[in-house]
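Forwarding these from the shared drive since the link keeps breaking.
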Amino acid sequence: MKIKKGFVLRQLLGEYVVTGEGLERINFNKIISLNATAAYLWEKVQDKEFTVGELADLLVEHYEVDKETAFKDSEALVNSWKEASLLED
């Protein structure tokens, strides 16, 4: 899977948000807020193909978390990005 083109991560007033690039893509009801960990993962996989397992590996490398927890958290994050239509297969 991959993050769809046209979506960018921005930091606004200390918060991380994903918005559409260009006014025609912005739906202010659909701005997605990310915590610092999700923003870290977004930055690492932006413009790349990735799997849930690869996100989990990034979490294990960067944070003190076990592989099982990292995988579950990565899976939940991917599901939320899919629900928000931010990913393509």
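-- next protein --
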Amino acid sequence: MKKRITIKDVAREAGVSVATVSYVMNNRTDIQISEKTRKKVLQISNLLGYSPNQAAQALVTSQKRMLAVYMPESPSILKKADQMYVLDFLSSFLQSKNYGVIYLSASHKDCYNQADAIVCYDMSSDYFHQIGDRNFVPLLALDSLIADNQLFFQINTDYQKLSKQAAEHFGADYTLLLLDTPNLEKKALLEELFPSVSYISEPGELTGYTSQNLLVVQHVLNESLKSLMEPGALLYYAPVMTMEKAEALFSCMEYAMDRTPAHSHDVQI
């Protein structure tokens, strides 16, 4: 039997007083509470599954069997193709779990409450937290490194393991070729782990790399490069979207929706 979450649990995790939690949960406007504190209390309350009354608890635990997916806007044709591939992959996978998928572009600024959870794909840490500030359903980061992995789940490729695999395949003579990303934390990590990293946005840029040994992780780049590689140049494809990662995402989503404590919120596949 799951432990009943109390107002004291929320106050302890949020680092505020019990009174502050009470004021926030009851929408008290006569008490001065910063917006940052209010949002943190609401996020912690949602994470733990706390609600001050049974009626509200029923709202928290009701399920719509829908997942919303945020993706960053981009003028790049290749980036849009990658996003549609990922969206189709997730849609097919979640359909097998009896879930539907709703696509939300980054231009959607308002609170979205028509889904059980929200996934941000390849999103900047700043924008991820902006979405978290506007929404109080479970929020997960997919292929995005975020600053706060204590409150939010993040599911990423194990790039350290991938760098070892690439070294075994190529030695040191290769380039990790990627579609450009707004996630600066991921860029910094890749620069540390791989001998050479390059980003592209448009198809015409591909010809500048076809004579090199290339490691690619995105489906659209692999498909585009297969027929372009020059003799002697090697292409190694290690897809970032796999069934294993989709299963990990779904497990994290269930943990977040059920408010079940997890050993780690930082999942690497």
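The first strand starts at residue 66 and ends at 71. The chain is about 40% helix and 15% strand.

- D.
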